[in-house]
Amino acid sequence: MAEINKVVLAYSGGLDTSVILRWLQEEYSCEVVTFTADIGQGEEVEPARAKAQAAGIKEIYIDDLREDFAREYIFPMFRANAIYEGEYLLGTSIARPLIAKRLIEIANETGAEAISHGATGKGNDQVRFELGAYALRPDIHVIAPWREWDLNSRQKLLAYADKHGIPIEMKKGKASPYSMDANSLHISYEGGILEDPWAEPEEDMWRWSVSPENAPDTPTYIELSFQQGDITEIDGVAHTPAEVMDKLNSVAGANGVGRLDIVENRYVGMKSRGCYETPAGTVMLRAHRAIESITLDREVAHLKDELMPRYASLIYNGYWWSPEREMLQHMIDASQVSVNGKVRVKLYKGNVDIVGRDSATNSLFDEAIATFEEDEGAYNQKDAEGFIKLNALRMRIAATKKSG
């Protein structure tokens, strides 16, 4: 083991990180600094302070990062229309670079040589945390207990906590059989019956949305205003990025929007089945593509679509802080200068329908040209003949050769 005097732990105060805290103190005989982030998970984070104090921690960081998360991570990602493997809106993936960044900042502030996290050796999060950390501080030491200890079950963790007098707050009522992770963009569910890809999720698993069958029988209409690709107003009322997430999660979830059940390919090589609720993100993606449809040049829009899978994979695999992601982000952001206007959205029983889009200053939609009525010479239909023949030339030559 490397000699570590101080380590910054990503700490939630739950079973895993409470055990990790004590384990670090014992195994590394080091001082532990705890860092707890509020990124919109919907749970009170302040109790983590008392738990850390009870464990003898002197340096405790509890940060409200909701606005930073939405403004600097979620919004830039949605400018790219990023979606992984055609379905996943990257809700867990996009939170990790922010946490990695803050871990490194705290390590620098406190003089810590190492950081530690509770991600397992099977998942993507270990990669995301550590790639981010190394990109921001190459000499940082990373301690990943799940790759070192033999406490590889909940029962062993509970036994360790009991042996060392670690108080574990047991939630009242029926314990959830799922592993859940939430932030302003989504909530994820893994484990339990979901480990069988044939098993349908239980209805009481879902936390943020009603079932489409039980959603209201009348549609909800909302109007979203965009400035340079970002939502700035909802129904004419200005909102901060974090407020946009909260508002859209609420209204879309109430209409049964945002549920997803997928099997995805993890970066470490295995397939994993997970369920996600992303009400706000589902609306944002559809609305952003709608405003781009009238404000972006065709070739710019198509180039963005070609590059998007690469951009999404970079985020999914943990390369947010890589030079290639930053290069792509500059290009994406440059494309958004003209993405201004309004989109009207209809939410109904799990569906998100775009029913209107308008840009007073940047629309490239010209009704005088697109009309099926008399266009008064705005478009010469005879021009299409030469256009078609020139584009058919190579195929006509090939067909002639084949026919002899």
Task: Give an overview of the whole structure.
By secondary structure, the protein is an alpha/beta fold. It folds into three domains: 6-66 and 90-163, 3-Layer(aba) Sandwich (Rossmann fold); 179-296 and 338-358, Argininosuccinate synthetase, chain A, domain 2, CATH 3.90.1260.10; 367-403. The chain has twelve helices and 14 strands. The chain has helices at 15-28, 47-54, 66-79, 96-110, 125-136, 154-163, 241-253, 279-295, 298-317, 323-335, 367-370, 383-403, and strands at 6-10, 31-38, 60-64, 114-116, 141-143, 179-182, 187-190, 220-227, 230-234, 237-238, 259-265, 271-277, 341-348, 351-358. The strands form three sheets. A five-stranded parallel beta sheet has the order 3-2-1-4-5, sandwiched between helices. Strands 10-9-8-13-14 form a five-stranded antiparallel beta sheet. Strands 6-7-12-11 form a four-stranded antiparallel beta sheet, with no helix packed on it. Strand 6 (179-182) and strand 7 (187-190) form a beta hairpin. It is elongated, with a radius of gyration of 25 Å. The mean pLDDT is 94.
In short:
With 404 residues, the protein is an alpha/beta fold. It is built from 12 helices and 14 strands. Strands 3-2-1-4-5 form a 5-stranded parallel β-sheet, sandwiched between helices. Strands 10-9-8-13-14 form a 5-stranded antiparallel β-sheet.
Percent of residues in helical segments? 25-40%
Total individual domains: 3
Distance between the termini: 76 Å
Uncertain parts: none
In the CATH classification, which architecture of the largest domain applies? Alpha-Beta Complex
Characteristics of this structure?
404 residues, 12 helices, Rossmann fold, alpha/beta, 3 domains, Argininosuccinate synthetase, chain A, domain 2, 14 strands, five-stranded parallel beta sheet, elongated, single chain
